[in-house]
Amino acid sequence: MTHANAPSPSVGPARAGGPPSPPRSTLVVTAHAGDFVWRAGGAVALAACRGEKVTIACLTFGERGESAQAWRAGKTLKEIKAIRREEAERAADALGAEVRFYDAGDYPLLPTAELTDQLVAVYRETQPDVVLTHPAEDPYNGDHPAANRMAMEARVLAQAVGYPGPGEIIGAPPVFYFEPHQPEMSGFRPEVLLDITEVWDIKRKAMECLAAQQHLWAYYTDLAVRRGVQLKRNAGPNLGLAYDTMAEAFMRPFPQIAKELA
Amino acid sequence: MTHANAPSPSVGPARAGGPPSPPRSTLVVTAHAGDFVWRAGGAVALAACRGEKVTIACLTFGERGESAQAWRAGKTLKEIKAIRREEAERAADALGAEVRFYDAGDYPLLPTAELTDQLVAVYRETQPDVVLTHPAEDPYNGDHPAANRMAMEARVLAQAVGYPGPGEIIGAPPVFYFEPHQPEMSGFRPEVLLDITEVWDIKRKAMECLAAQQHLWAYYTDLAVRRGVQLKRNAGPNLGLAYDTMAEAFMRPFPQIAKELA
Amino acid sequence: MTHANAPSPSVGPARAGGPPSPPRSTLVVTAHAGDFVWRAGGAVALAACRGEKVTIACLTFGERGESAQAWRAGKTLKEIKAIRREEAERAADALGAEVRFYDAGDYPLLPTAELTDQLVAVYRETQPDVVLTHPAEDPYNGDHPAANRMAMEARVLAQAVGYPGPGEIIGAPPVFYFEPHQPEMSGFRPEVLLDITEVWDIKRKAMECLAAQQHLWAYYTDLAVRRGVQLKRNAGPNLGLAYDTMAEAFMRPFPQIAKELA
Amino acid sequence: MTHANAPSPSVGPARAGGPPSPPRSTLVVTAHAGDFVWRAGGAVALAACRGEKVTIACLTFGERGESAQAWRAGKTLKEIKAIRREEAERAADALGAEVRFYDAGDYPLLPTAELTDQLVAVYRETQPDVVLTHPAEDPYNGDHPAANRMAMEARVLAQAVGYPGPGEIIGAPPVFYFEPHQPEMSGFRPEVLLDITEVWDIKRKAMECLAAQQHLWAYYTDLAVRRGVQLKRNAGPNLGLAYDTMAEAFMRPFPQIAKELA
Amino acid sequence: MTHANAPSPSVGPARAGGPPSPPRSTLVVTAHAGDFVWRAGGAVALAACRGEKVTIACLTFGERGESAQAWRAGKTLKEIKAIRREEAERAADALGAEVRFYDAGDYPLLPTAELTDQLVAVYRETQPDVVLTHPAEDPYNGDHPAANRMAMEARVLAQAVGYPGPGEIIGAPPVFYFEPHQPEMSGFRPEVLLDITEVWDIKRKAMECLAAQQHLWAYYTDLAVRRGVQLKRNAGPNLGLAYDTMAEAFMRPFPQIAKELA
Amino acid sequence: MTHANAPSPSVGPARAGGPPSPPRSTLVVTAHAGDFVWRAGGAVALAACRGEKVTIACLTFGERGESAQAWRAGKTLKEIKAIRREEAERAADALGAEVRFYDAGDYPLLPTAELTDQLVAVYRETQPDVVLTHPAEDPYNGDHPAANRMAMEARVLAQAVGYPGPGEIIGAPPVFYFEPHQPEMSGFRPEVLLDITEVWDIKRKAMECLAAQQHLWAYYTDLAVRRGVQLKRNAGPNLGLAYDTMAEAFMRPFPQIAKELA
């Protein structure tokens, strides 16, 4: 896979003058098959383009709650799952990421100790430097908070040497919540505005893999423009000009660890 | 002025079977000349198209803080005020509203007892059934909260028979805060989604009166689409379809008074 | 049933000039048998008096947590359930509503997928235009938040064509939270003040059906007076007068959808 | 003055076995003449009945904003101030407190450095052990937050040895905010429920000194009943009984300092 | 057990002139074996020194989540539980309290109806005048909110005469949340600052019973100093002096019931 | 000035491969002379050690509110200002920063248009890449919020080409609020934890320049330890070990602008 408009991938960013570390790792935990594309496709593409590993844990296919058109077209549950899986795999491939499905059943996605335990295993296997997931509130879709709860709980359990299971314990990677569909109603405040301009074409291609939701292509393009305008307004004076920056917004549930204020 | 795409204006909505009341009155209090167009143009046009009276109190021309292009083009302060006034008057005319300027000086707009007293007089003169103004917070522009404070204080003072000045005291009209540029950073939550589809063409024409801020035409069109999608999602099932509803979002600082839950 | 002091019932409000629609439908989801009377009796009576259908889903009889006097009088669990059922049926009848019991067990009411699924069926059967339920927080009674969670989750599931079960999917009806016993401790803010003056006598009669809780009759009469005073103060000037308006307070967890600001 | 229904006043409560301390001192800072009666009359009476000193600093007479009936009866500003002063003095006397007027002008009450400085002098003179004032928010009456700001600022200034003026510096007395007219809209949460049953008759008599606001007598009696019910529910089990406890609610802007958890 | 540095224990504080009541009872509900020492050791020691009964319900030993050193030293699960139990018992003994273990399994501690029911029994047996537990939020350790939920739910259930089980129903004892490790990230605000100076030596000895966590001895000593400084600053003027007061901070989820403002 | 324990200063960090930019600039706006040392000394030292320019705008000397010992020792106002100035200059020198005094008068520090205008000039002169100031709330010291308001307003005004005055307009530099004395009571949440371990010795030396407040040396050393522990816990697993990281905490009122999530 090559990305014509993307920055050159780097191999294993050397840190602080030592030998090359293993490539950084990003773990994305989502409720439904399409979530990672609309909400974090730019962040995923940026990481992948830097040569980093990105693993997406899709807890369900969104087969009941986010496949209205397919149901109305008369598809069976099995067919819908297959369609959603195939679309998501193509989108993940476009972004340069690996996607794994847990088929836990959506609408409602029920948090269980077993599924949380599977996530602990993924954390320990992928040793993420960064975690992306849904925010804790979403009055329009209870599956998103359910995914959040399991992602957050598994991250804590995976840090404990006393929690059984394969793999090494993890550190405490920073977590970023991606933007819900109705941010103000979900207590979402953009705490990080990520510049995704250079990977925008990649995100757009990934969105276009989700054929059944064509009406969202324009919607999420507009959102990236809006967040780009806000990024510019938070970084420079108001010159009364149009901008062409594209951005994604995130929240941080934990403090940022910094070596420098910037 | 005629509005090809607008609903027929009604004259003085008769209420509850009695004799025709005087036409309803809306008062909009804004900090800068363009604010009422971008943020409340749809609400203004809807009211005007119903035959209601809309009065816009512009506390400043936005001559210092929102006229970057004119300053960079070498205009004088006087010229800039004249340009902003002329644009705003044309936009108000397109919407079917009256605009009044107070030239109180922006960046910063300083709340004073005198300016608040002038607003009390406008309240008593226009006897508003509805008030629109900026929300109480905006970390990007202190003039907006300053306008809010004076609009809110004057509304309370105008209700008191003991507060001196011409005109009759007013009731306690409902207040709607319109959407700031960065809603999540300003504590803005869409509590009312107003369907402005039928007056969208009028709002767009009014926006186009603000020639110097052409880059905002598309921006606020996108916003109306986004708020329209949210309106639909708060009113009907998720059918996986595109919508063509346009909307504006508002907050209510006071409880809604209702005869029926709906 | 006739209501001497009530407005004339209308049959199927015609909307926007078209043919008469089916009567509007209200669904009330509550934890205990008496909740709908104290907290929403006025709203229920208003809807019923307009000729609308009101269905009350009582998840439990409040047999353990809200029947202290009966327990202390030595009644058995079975007797207490029967008493509570009979009282609630009489109160519902007085208000003009239908009540259904789910006998899910209170103190604690445990949210389950099965009970939620039963609520999905009620949503699809009754096709509510309006939903009333408990607010999301109540530190004094965990059954209320439990009922809220199931009512809110079932409302989302019932909208999804992919969620199995009988009946048509529903739209996204507005939700109103009614007032808890200690509003400030439960994060309750009166966002809607509903004028129930014209049905007050009906609500009072319904309250008097709950014989075992006679001490609450005066308490909830006083509350209606207080909310009535606040309604007046949010609608008109402070003239230093007494009012005789009676009101109920509600919260809106979702934005109001409006055709007009008022 | 004798209080038939009140506890015996004590002289200078001896603390921790030492010699009698000077009587405790309470300072109440209010915007308008009647505020201390409706909102804190019970707390004032309780302190006075314990033999403590209570000083009420009334910043204005409430002559413009809270005297609608007098204005409509054609009284002059001077007459209205005289009426309010006389009523408040009688009410203070009934409660056993001293009231002082600053005649700073209401509607709006404007915070000034001079008025704040006068309050610093009162703090240093009265050396309060307890401070009562309005809460920081009140969207219905801007004079209340204005009084709050000055009361709070003066309390900090009065602690500083470097702030000039007569009298000794004060400690950091606890502050209690009393309940506004619309508590939920003013961010008010009852953090302290004070049992005023034993001085209720005194408070009622003080309320009855405010003849022009007779409609508020019942209103604030009902409020005391409601807060009394909540006090009982926060102190004992729900026995399904009526209570006859009367209470007032307060907020604490600063942490409670405790020798024992209770 | 004698405490050289503690106040003399009193036997059954006589209240309001009547016969001696039974000694007051404090119930502490915690997730892990060490929690009561670090977070509430001072409050426990103060109560014990006053001759009151203190019962600590430890839901788990903290065997998986808070025993990293033991796991890395190669201990077995059984050995770790035994070590934690022994340490906690010695610490409870030092404080003058009784500790009971429920061995419900930590990391994650899962709320169940059975465990909640066991807590109801403890409430009814111990008839607490005061309850201490974890706050409702803690993003760093999900076991703490889980313990909070069960402690809070059991407290409500234990008040209901209709909830089955042995023992008498309880009143509504005040609850105090103790301070989490990262207070600002857990929504913790110090609402009560408890002066523990006179029992500091006892708390320190109890901390030293937790040998494996020696690095926390200094940490929690520093915290007590910091809270002591804040206590002083909330009780007196800023004299620019050092203090030697030691304190613990607590939140109150319910209103304080007061006979006097202080 | 040389810093034995500090990293080598770099000269003008080259960015994005271009020619060396001018050294980065940090602007600190504080109310009183000592604030920048206790609250941001580590951030200042880190920037200075990287060869960056740091300018501290001290609005007052803290002569009335934070000089209790000097007043009690009988010093005059003039003497106290001179002492505070001299101490602050030595501390700034130790940190490698420039300090400027505005002598605006403390306790209370009153926001004025003139002082705000002076700050606009400093912004335009120093062209800050980073701004540090007090948070917006502090119930213990009104001067801190006053400084915040002016610092924030001046930052917006300085961005506007229409605001008159010398110098070039600025961009929109990120702002960091430093930690108040009682963080939880001031709405402070650590959103950024800055590792200051490598400049700790420098901060300690700067603190020791403030001779009159010796009791704060230990206090702020303990705070740095505590924030360091939290930094470690937000960056790695809980290994049950002691740490020797020192940190300062900050809030971000505006979103972080990022090229990468980390």
CATH domain fold name of chain A:
Rossmann fold
Query: Number of helical segments of chain A?
Result: 7
Provide the CATH top-level class of chain A. Answer: Alpha Beta
Spatial arrangement of strands, main beta sheet of chain A: 3-2-1-4-5-7-6
Distance between the ends of chain A: 34 Å
The main sheet of chain A comes to: 7 strands, mixed
Order of helices and strands of chain A: EHEHHEHEHEEHHEE
Instruction: Please give the share of residues in helix of chain A.
Output: 25-40%
What's the name of the CATH homologous superfamily of chain A? LmbE-like
Q: Which chain pair has the greatest contact?
A: A-F, 44 and 44 residues
- What is the assembly state of the chains in this entry? homohexamer
Which residue ranges of chain A are poorly predicted, with pLDDT under 50 across at least 5 consecutive positions? 1-17
- The pLDDT mean of chain A sits at 91
Q: What Rg of chain A is obtained from the alpha carbons, in whole angstroms?
A: 18 Å
The CATH architecture classification of chain A is 3-Layer(aba) Sandwich
Shape designation of chain A = globular
β-sheet strand percentage of chain A: 5-15%
Count of DSSP E strands of chain A?
8
Domain tally of chain A: 1
Which class best fits the helix and strand makeup of chain A? alpha/beta
